[in-house]
Design a protein that fits this description.
Rossmann fold; single chain; alpha/beta; 227 residues; 5 strands
């Protein structure tokens, strides 16, 4: 899978992926918060001229920013529990509020309490919860604040997705509270060649909660579409 690039969710890092052979960069903010900055970094690090690009949640937003800059570098897409629309004013305000708080107080248990319940499903294992909790607590406050402000200003990606002519896989956890199955369905309809699937008994992070099932769905789809 040396042509597979997977971008992680907020507020986690590359450890959320258990996909051997995939390139899984950790996204680090610098300068003015803008997902285009991360996209430029990813494009510069792509291992091949064309790659299969995937992202979960925030990683999906960054993947869409890559598409705005260099669509010809992408031969296929994997969107996991993400959406193509911009934030509402309320959602953007909530992101800025969290960014301000993490700058004041740093990363701590309050951030776990604010994010973990929405990241995992109701039946997530204690092991999965522990992995997510560890990743949250390991993040730098400056990155958490940067990510939130960058996501708050991201544009609607409908236009760029509608013009794509590549195979796409849209996966969503059955119990995802942040980008539920109806949101994934809207994303799939926006894409020309999308396969949309629901992963049962998972929340917002199927690659962490159901890693074997996630890999199986990905591998089966790649065989089906010849990627």
């Amino acid at each position: 899978m040396e042509d597979l690039v997977l971008l992680h969710a907020f507020p986690l890092d590359a450890r959320m992926w258990d996909v051997p052979g995939a390139l899984t960069p950790s996204l680090r903010g610098h300068g003015e918060p803008d997902l285009d900055t991360l996209a430029s970094q990813i494009i510069a690090e792509l291992p091949r001229e064309q790659v299969l690009l995937g992202g979960c949640s925030m990683g999906g937003y960054v993947a869409m920013a890559v598409l705005r800059q260099a669509p010809k570098r992408v031969k296929g897409l994997v969107f996991v529990d993400t959406k193509h629309t911009a934030d509402t004013q309320e959602a953007a305000a909530n992101r800025h509020a969290m960014a301000d708080r993490v700058e004041r107080e740093g990363v701590g248990e309050w951030l776990v309490e604010a994010t973990l319940p929405n990241l995992v499903g109701p039946n997530a294992s204690d092991a999965a919860k522990a992995v997510v909790r560890t990743m949250i607590l390991d993040q730098r406050a400056e990155d958490v604040a940067w990510w939130q402000r960058a996501m708050a200003k991201r544009p609607d990606s409908t236009g760029v997705l509608e013009t794509l002519d590549v195979p796409s896989l849209v996966l969503v956890g059955e119990h995802d509270k942040l980008t539920p199955p109806d949101v994934a369905a809207k994303l799939a309809v926006t894409l020309k060649h999308a396969t949309s699937e629901r992963i049962e008994d998972s929340g917002h992070l199927p690659p962490v909660e159901q890693p074997e099932e996630f890999r199986a769905r990905l591998e089966r789809w790649r065989e089906q579409v010849g990627l």
